[in-house]
Design a protein that fits this description.
alpha/beta, seven-stranded parallel sheet
């Protein structure tokens, strides 16, 4: 018998059904029963990682402590489980093929013809079992990206078939997430697409053990029996996943449906303890019963697609619940910030967050938003590029360095207050070459951030190429800007504050990546608290640093 049990989550009928949320919800329930659980994502695209993908194509690129640029679903895994992920939790087709080709070049296949089966599938199986073989987990959930029937997913499906056979039915199971569409003209739910999806899966040699059905309407007993009969699963293994008002409701919905119970039964694991979700449900209570509302402007250049800033939006949900307020995030496209937008939108906000990003587009709009927050004493948080824009704005408008800029935006700028890191200057490859992962930062005493964190030493996740240029540090500090966080290894600025402003903080790192339901990020919690205070005062008159 294998020490680690494996659960594979596949999708059918349509993409974007929420495999990641279902996987994270089931993992949460299993964790709440006392099992050690982790989740991994297998992505069928050929990019080695999503680090070079446009946010409009793939949503945000999530970053782990060990510097992996990964799919945004890993953010869901961490937010639900409060357990860190790593390089091993996200595998792409590009990484699989890269590894196999490198082995072939080293002569590891002894002159054999390298093929999808067995070499690619063996590589996939090895990657799936890395986490299980570590001895750290009782159960490993593996989400297979894409939709059953896609050409790109076939090697993964075949690898799952082989691994399920090798491990045995008691040690591995397949959950198939599918869609039950409602035809308004007929006034009924239709099971035929799901039947075809399960049939396609079976043609690949895999029988679904559990069927999770996304639906807008409740599945009645007759529909469940029909699905069980024609999809070859037990009736209790037909699980309804009805649309929810928030993704954080899904674990409780899956608990009501018995998804965790049927899973443990099929894996021959004890199911006699009830999941302990006290902390989770307290978060939900606060989230659903806010005592007030604050409006925070999200100044970004990818605002048309919410997934581009997924971790930031979720961090606001966590921080809002902690403050018992609803955070209404207002997306404001930085490319189109005019005086009219300032007057009609920006000025109506209780706080402003200038978001991360790359490239020149929309930069001047971000700088205008920073200037408004600084001059009107509105609580401000700048993240990564947002922090850099705050430095440029201050250099231009306070220090009177009119031509201050970043070499990312203007390579030949005369005053590069933001510049390419020295170790980046000879790099030509764009993938996986930024400053990535967790880096230490020393905080200045008696600063907003030292009070927020409650310590003078922190570690946060990074994803950037350009840094604060220390050549201008003295000028900026003499003009009133304070460097309150420094990387002890590089001696470069990580955090800037304005002492004459009630709450103005810019950070080079990405605090949103570490915010979870169980541990809301303290910087977001304090930022939302500052917004609440600003909102309640009607102005900044009575505000003080948090």
């Amino acid at each position: 018998m294998a020490d680690t049990k494996y659960i594979f989550v596949t999708g059918g009928v349509s993409s974007s059904l929420g495999k990641g949320i279902i996987a994270a919800s089931l993992a949460k329930l299993l964790q709440a029963r006392g099992y050690r659980v982790t989740i991994q994502k297998l992505d069928p695209y050929i990019n080695v990682d999503p680090g070079t993908l446009n946010p409009y194509e793939h949503g945000e690129c999530y970053v782990t402590d060990d510097g992996a640029e990964t799919d945004l679903d890993l953010g869901h895994y961490e937010r639900f489980l409060n357990v860190k992920t790593s390089q091993a939790n996200n595998v792409t087709t590009g990484r699989i093929y890269q590894s196999v080709i490198e082995k072939e070049r080293r002569g590891e296949f002894l002159g054999k013809t390298v093929q999808v089966v067995p070499h690619i599938t063996n590589e996939i199986k090895e990657r799936i079992q890395i986490l299980g073989n570590s001895g750290d987990y009782d159960i490993v959930l593996t989400e297979i990206g894409g939709t059953v029937g896609d050409i790109e997913s076939l090697p993964y499906i075949e690898a799952v078939r082989q691994l399920k056979w090798e491990l045995g039915d008691d040690n591995a199971l397949v959950i198939h997430l599918t869609l039950i569409p409602f035809l308004s003209a007929a006034g009924e739910l239709k099971t035929k697409p799901t039947q075809h999806s399960v049939k396609t899966l079976m043609e690949s040699g895999i029988k679904a053990d559990i069927l999770v059905c996304r639906t807008e309407h409740d599945l009645n007993v007759d529909l469940r029996e029909k699905l069980a009969l024609f999809c070859n699963v037990r009736k209790e293994a037909v699980i309804q996943s009805i649309d929810a008002s928030t993704i954080y409701d899904v674990p409780n919905l899956m608990l009501e449906e018995g998804l965790d119970t049927i899973t443990l039964q099929k894996l021959k694991l004890p199911d006699d303890t009830e999941p302990v979700l006290t902390r989770w449900n307290e978060f939900l209570r606060r989230h659903k019963n806010p005592k007030a509302e604050v409006r925070i402007g999200l100044i970004g250049k990818y605002v048309e697609l919410q997934d581009s800033y997924k971790s930031i939006l979720e961090a606001f949900i966590h921080a809002g619940a902690e403050n018992e307020v609803r955070v209404k995030v207002e997306p404001i496209h930085s490319e189109f910030i005019s005086q009219k937008v300032i007057d009609t939108k920006v000025s109506k906000m209780d706080a402003l967050l200038v978001a991360p990003g790359f490239g020149e587009r929309g930069i001047e709009g971000k700088i205008r938003a920073v200037q408004y927050a600084r001059e009107h004493k509105i609580p401000f948080l700048g993240i990564c590029l947002g922090m850099q824009m705050a430095v440029i704005e201050y250099a231009r408008n306070v220090v009177k360095l009119d031509k201050a800029n970043s070499t990312e935006m203007q390579a030949d700028t005369e005053i590069p207050v933001i510049d390419l890191m020295e170790e980046q200057k000879d790099i030509t490859h764009k993938g996986g070459t930024m400053r990535l992962g967790s880096w230490d930062c020393e905080l200045a005493p008696d600063s907003i951030v030292s009070r927020v964190y409650g310590t003078n030493q922190i570690s946060e996740r990074h994803r950037h190429r350009y840094e604060f240029n220390n050549a201008y540090k003295q000028q900026l500090e003499e003009a009133g800007m304070r460097i309150t966080g420094t990387n002890p290894k590089t001696n470069l600025a990580e955090i800037i504050e304005l002492p004459d402003h009630p709450w103005f903080v810019g950070v080079q790192y990405h605090p949103e990546y570490k915010s979870t339901v169980a541990s809301p990020h303290p910087l977001f919690v304090a930022f939302v608290a500052a917004a609440v205070k600003y909102s309640q005062s009607g102005s900044s008159d009575n505000m003080a640093p948090q």
